[in-house]
UniProtKB/TrEMBL annotation:
EC number per UniProt: 1.3.98.3
Listed name of the protein: Oxygen-independent coproporphyrinogen-III oxidase 1
Organism encoding this protein: Stieleria varia
Domain spans labelled Radical SAM core: 11-254
GO molecular function, one term: metal ion binding
The keyword Iron is assigned to this record: yes
SMART domains: Elp3 (SM00729)
Record-linked PROSITE patterns: RADICAL_SAM
InterPro entries: ELP3 (IPR039661), Elp3/MiaA/NifB-like_rSAM (IPR006638), Radical_SAM_C (IPR032432), rSAM (IPR007197), rSAM_horseshoe (IPR023404), rSAM_sf (IPR058240), YhcC-like (IPR005911)
Length: 338
């Protein structure tokens, strides 16, 4: 696998660690801009449109995170501020710039940003901002695609379609920042063949990096309730390992593999418990590659139209989301207090 750690080492000459930041964003799938309730696997109870995070708290999170990493590892060459919970491009662009620059300017050791978002929440104004920041820093924009199948997206209550993902990546690719895709394996109703169709679609669309997650359930979510009631089964460990290897064989050898499983804190996770054994799982995946005599990219078929040759489409961001982003001043979407 073209692993994330190795790719960062090549670029920065040492260990780079991510520090997770909660900047107080909410989500258009929670506040009603496109839907309410959020995705069925997401514990979004805290994503209230009225919550406030002070700018100082963003700095404090970064400082505490960096200190904690330094206690764990002897040598750290730098940090990536990872804007992780909620939809981290969902605020007026001026506010986004303010919070991202705050993180980048906090310390010379902050070498870049990773920004998690939805495919329907990246109007051109946000992509322009990413390109601007990427002139001097490593910037990774992480899209929650999850699957190429709209039935699966509907089951999760994502409130966007795969068409939004195609539109977003065709506008975002090749603009100086990294485009990373999040995929969930084990969505109920998706066969192995359907997951491989998603793999081929990821390869066709030409993302720079990928994070693979098993579907897992946590407390306080609609999915968690269904799993506890026994109406939904999570994927078995062996099937997951096989599926990950099948998936990565279809990826380009150039694609950076940032994750091969997802997990949650043990007291919060319902099922499957096996995903807590991250290192063992990774080893099993590597051993399965060895057993087969294959590697990432073994079954990659370059798309007929190279991703860089795909035409750039018109921005299809929903108007209700643009109304929150393409505006001046401060909206209640993100209430930062200096
Ligand atoms: S889009 Fe992301 S933040 Fe919003 S509800 Fe879904 S998983 Fe949660």
């Amino acid at each position: 696998m073209n692993s994330f750690g190795a790719s960062l080492r090549r670029r920065f000459g040492g260990r780079i660690q991510r520090v997770s930041i909660d900047a107080g964003f909410t989500c258009p799938n929670v506040d009603g801009a496109v839907a309410r309730g959020g995705c069925n696997f997401c514990d979004n109870r805290s994503f209230s449109p009225s919550r406030r995070v002070r700018l100082q708290q963003v700095s404090e999170q970064l400082d505490l995170g960096m200190q904690s990493v330094r206690r764990r590892y002897d040598r750290v060459a730098g940090f990536i501020a990872y804007f992780q919970p909620a939809t981290n491009t969902y605020a007026p662009v001026d506010q986004l710039r303010e919070v991202y620059q705050l993180a980048l300017g906090r310390s010379d050791d902050v070498v870049g940003l990773a920004i998690g978002t939805r495919p329907d929440c990246v109007p051109d104004s946000v992509l322009d901002l990413m390109s601007e920041l990427a002139l001097r820093h490593h910037v990774s924009l992480e899209f929650g695609m999850q699957t190429m199948h709209d039935a699966g997206l509907q089951w999760m209550n994502r409130a966007h379609s795969h068409e939004h993902m195609i539109n977003a990546i065709d506008r975002a690719r090749g603009r100086g920042f990294e485009c990373c895709v999040h995929i969930i394996l084990g969505i109920p109703g998706e066969s192995h063949e359907m997951m491989m169709q998603t793999a081929d679609e990821v390869a066709r669309l030409g993302f720079d990096a990928i994070k693979l997650h098993n579907l897992y359930s946590v407390k306080g979510t609609p999915l968690g309730e269904e799993v506890l009631a026994g109406t939904i089964q999570m994927m078995e460990r062996d099937a997951y390992v096989q599926t990950v290897v099948d998936f990565l064989e279809r990826m380009s050898p150039e694609t950076i593999v940032e994750r091969v499983s997802g997990d949650a804190p043990p007291n919060y996770l319902i099922e499957p418990k096996w995903c807590l054994e991250k290192s063992a799982l990774r080893l099993e995946i590597e051993q399965e590659f060895q057993r087969r005599g294959t590697r990432q990219g073994s079954r990659y078929r370059p798309p007929k139209v190279p991703p860089c040759m795909r035409p750039r489409p018109a921005d299809n961001t929903p108007q209700s989301i643009r109304d929150q982003i393409d505006t001046r001043g401060r909206l209640p979407v993100l209430k930062m207090e200096s």
